[in-house]
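C-alpha cells for chain A. Residues wanted.
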C-alpha cells in the first residue's frame, strides 16, 4: 500500500527538494503551506512576507505535479509560541521560539491538519535524520544529526517526542546544502537560489525590542558596568575539567550558580529602555561609546530594571562552568535511556544552534539536572534550551533555569 506523506512546503529550497525526494521514493506526496504569522510589527522591511512564501510554495507544487493546500495556524502559533516568547522575555529569560514551533506547531497542529488530508507521515526540510531500533518487540525512534554538520538542525527538534517522531520524515537529512541546491537547480525549481529564511520561525527577521513592545512596556533603567579589576571578588575561579562523579549537591549548585551582581558591584554608564529587551552575551542596542572594546550584557535584573555589562569578549562575566535545569523541564527523546536520580553521565551538549558540541558531565539530582562543562561556556542564559547528544544521536533537552 502506498503511504501518503504531507510535506510542509514553506517556499524554501529545503522543503521543495524534500517533496521531490519523497515522490521519487514512491510516496503519495501532498504539499501543505502553513500561514502562521501575518503581523508586520517590528519586521525588517528587507524580508519577504508570507505572501511571497506562499507563491513560491505553489510554484514548486505545480512543478512537481503534487496536490497543494494551505492552512492558517496563526491563532495556534500566537497562543503556543509567541505568547510564550512574550512571557519569557518579561521574566528576563531568553526563549527559543524555533524549538517551540517544532514541538507545538509543525509536529502537532500541522500534523493534525496533515492527518485530515489523509497523511500517514509529516515531512519537513530539516537537516537531520531519523532511524529506528527494535529492542524486543518495541520500536524506538532515534533522532540523529544531519549529515551536513555545517547545517545540522537537530537542535531545533530537541523537544519532540517519540510519538511525534513516529510519523516524521526528514528526506534531506543525508544531503548537504550545496547538494540540495544542485538538485533544485537541475529540476528547475523556483526556490533553487532563494535565500534561507532568517530570524524567528514563521515571523522573520525582526527588530526585537519593537516586536516585543506589542506586549512589553518600554521602561527606562540604568546600565551598570562591571569592571573586572575593580570587582574581582564578584567572580569565582573554577578550574577547567569535569568534577568527580560523587560531587555533592551543594558543590554542584555552587559550580553552576551565575554571578550575582548588584548596583554597588559597578558604576552607571548609561540608560536603556527595558531590561527585558536584553539577553546574556548581547553586544548591540546599548549605544554607549568610550570603550576600547565592545560592551556585552553579562546580567540583568528585570525587577529592578537594571542591565549589567562588561567590556570585551574575555570578561569573566560572560563565561560560566555549568547550568541547571529543573526536574519538570527535563525532556528525554530516548525515554528508555533517561537518567535516574543520583546517576551521572558524560554527554556532548550544546546550548544554541550552530554551537559546536561541548564535552560535559551531567548529574541527575532530585531538584533537577546539573550540567558541568569541561571548558567554560560563553553566554549561558536562562530560557535557552540545552540539548545533549551521544555521538550523532540527540538524547534529550531541557530549559535552562540558571
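Reply:
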Amino acid at each position: 500500500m502506498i503511504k501518503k506523506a504531507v510535506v510542509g512546503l514553506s517556499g524554501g529550497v529545503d522543503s521543495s527538494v524534500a517533496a521531490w525526494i519523497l515522490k521519487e521514493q514512491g510516496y503519495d506526496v501532498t504539499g501543505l503551506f502553513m500561514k502562521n504569522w501575518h503581523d508586520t510589527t517590528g519586521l525588517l522591511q528587507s524580508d519577504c512576507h508570507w505572501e511571497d512564501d506562499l507563491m513560491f510554495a505553489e510554484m514548486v507544487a505545480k512543478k512537481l505535479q503534487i496536490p497543494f493546500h494551505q492552512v492558517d495556524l496563526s491563532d495556534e502559533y500566537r497562543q503556543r509560541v509567541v505568547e510564550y516568547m512574550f512571557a519569557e522575555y518579561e521574566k528576563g529569560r531568553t526563549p527559543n521560539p524555533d524549538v517551540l514551533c517544532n514541538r507545538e506547531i509543525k509536529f502537532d497542529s500541522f500534523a493534525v491538519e496533515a492527518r485530515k488530508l489523509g497523511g500517514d507521515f509529516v515531512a519537513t526540510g530539516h537537516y537531520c535524520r531519523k532511524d529506528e531500533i527494535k529492542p524486543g518487540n518495541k520500536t524506538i525512534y532515534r533522532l540523529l544529526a544531519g549529515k551536513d554538520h555545517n547545517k545540522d538542525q537537530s537542535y531545533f527538534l530537541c523537544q519532540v517526542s517519540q510519538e511525534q517522531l513516529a510519523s516524521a520524515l526528514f528526506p534531506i537529512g543525508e544531503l548537504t546544502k550545496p547538494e540540495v541546491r544542485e538538485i533544485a537547480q537541475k529540476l528547475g525549481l523556483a526556490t533553487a537560489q532563494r535565500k534561507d529564511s532568517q530570524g524567528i520561525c514563521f515571523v522573520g527577521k525582526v527588530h526585537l525590542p519593537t516586536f516585543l513592545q506589542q506586549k512589553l512596556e518600554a521602561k527606562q533603567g540604568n546600565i551598570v558596568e562591571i569592571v573586572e579589576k575593580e570587582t574581582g571578588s564578584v567572580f569565582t575561579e573554577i578550574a577547567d575539567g569535569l568534577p568527580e562523579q560523587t560531587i555533592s549537591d551543594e558543590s554542584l549548585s555552587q559550580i553552576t550558580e551565575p554571578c550575582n551582581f548588584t548596583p554597588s558591584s559597578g558604576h552607571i554608564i548609561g540608560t536603556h529602555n527595558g531590561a527585558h529587551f536584553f539577553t546574556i552575551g548581547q553586544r548591540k542596542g546599548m549605544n554607549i561609546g568610550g570603550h576600547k572594546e565592545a560592551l556585552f550584557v553579562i546580567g540583568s535584573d528585570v525587577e529592578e530594571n537594571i542591565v549589567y555589562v562588561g567590556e570585551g569578549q574575555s570578561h569573566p562575566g560572560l563565561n560560566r562552568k555549568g547550568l541547571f535545569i529543573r526536574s519538570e523541564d527535563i525532556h528525554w527523546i530516548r525515554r528508555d535511556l533517561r537518567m535516574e536520580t543520583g546517576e551521572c553521565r558524560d554527554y556532548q551538549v550544546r546550548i544554541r544552534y550552530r554551537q559546536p558540541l561541548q564535552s560535559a558531565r551531567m548529574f541527575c539530582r532530585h531538584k533537577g539536572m546539573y550540567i558541568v562543562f569541561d571548558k567554560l561556556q560563553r553566554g549561558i542564559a536562562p530560557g535557552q534550551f540545552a540539548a545533549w547528544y551521544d555521538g550523532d544521536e540527540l538524547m534529550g533537552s531541557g530549559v535552562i533555569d540558571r
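Residues 4-210 form a domain with the Rossmann fold fold (CATH 3.40.50.620). The first helix runs from residue 13 to 24.
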